Amino acid sequence: MPSDRLLVAFGDELFNYDFGPYHPLNRSRTDVFVRRLMELKARAPEKIELTEPAMATEEEISLFHTKEYIEFVKLACSPGSKIRYLDYGDTPAYPNCFVRASTVVGTTLKLLREIASGRTLRAFNPVGGLHHARRNSAGGFCIFNDAAIAIEYALRRIRYKAVAYVDIDAHHGDGVYYDFEDDPRVIFFDIHQDGRTLYPGTGFEHERGKGEALGRKMNAPLPPYSGDEEFLRALERGLKFLDQFEFDIVFFQAGADGLAGDPLTNLMYSRRAHESAARALLELAERKCDGRILAFGGGGYNPINVGEAWSAVVEVLAGV
Ligand SMILES: [Zn+2]
């Protein structure tokens, strides 16, 4: 019997996935969350188990990324490299970024294996959910797309028949959507700020999958300044959509950058959005796939909001 607890990845090797103090994705954005997590763990030690980060192998990373792109990242972060950015200016290259990005991936895969083996049902990688990296490129602070690699791993290694990927980050999960657009085994639902007003400029209502996967993806863009009410209405539509399908695990990208006061977006959610989504997805996972759910922290650039949103997810998934 899997024990009734939430596994949370925790450790400096993981929290050090950052781009320096002057970049929105910096080390201090997780400080408030870490304090909240420690309080929750002190309150209910048996319900939250911390687990150390792990590093992915190149072979695991190549389940999703091309060999050429992996070599490019290695080269860009090697000593003496003159490459300053891994993309067009959002995602800087720096010494060690290959190791740090590989650690995010390895940690996500470690949690996925724990779930697949039945040792736990629910897990959270706060630094995971790097949903903008594509098979052959970096994007939007994301070097390797751990969520997409986890999807490939779940389908090819664990041999799950289908997976659900639900993304409530303020930005569209383009690296998951486009790279699985025609794959019917990936059920996709994404609530985000309208692409006409925010990076990466994608994720429109008419984008519903392609070929055999047509109708198995749903994008729910919200206008700028949407709050909890608009979010909850979109969530309800998404839950009806997800309910039509069968899948073996729920992946949940719980980006915190939709909360009011994020420096990069214009959404106005409160922690209630994350609490409601976590509760609904946990219930969905219990109904559809024996309760298997792997959550990711995703984006979030206001430390107080990150603390609020992610601790809401931990509270619900751990039952604290
Ligand atoms: Zn984001």
Structure in words:
The protein has helices at 12-15, 31-43, 58-61, 67-76, 97-116, 146-156, 174-177, 228-242, 271-288, 303-318, and strands at residues 6-9, 48-51, 122-125, 163-167, 186-193, 217-222, 250-253, 293-296. By secondary structure, it is α/β, with parallel strands linked by helices. It has an eight-stranded parallel sheet, with helices on both faces. Helix 5 packs parallel to helix 6 (146-156). The structure holds zinc ion. Zinc ion (ZN) is lined by residues 169-171, 255, 257, 299.
Ligands present: zinc ion
Mean pLDDT: 96
Helix/strand-derived class? Answer: alpha/beta
Which quaternary structure do these chains form?
single chain
Estimate the helix proportion, in percent: 25-40%
Whole-number radius of gyration? 18 Å
Based on Cα principal axes, name the global outline: globular
Strand tally: 8
Helical segment tally? 10
Major β-sheet annotation: 8 strands, parallel
Secondary-structure element order, N to C: EHHEHHHEHEHEEHEHEH
Unreliable residue runs: none
Instruction: Please give the alpha-carbon distance between the first and last residues.
Output: 20 Å
Strand content: 5-15%
For the largest beta sheet, what order do the strands appear in spatially? 2-1-3-8-7-4-5-6
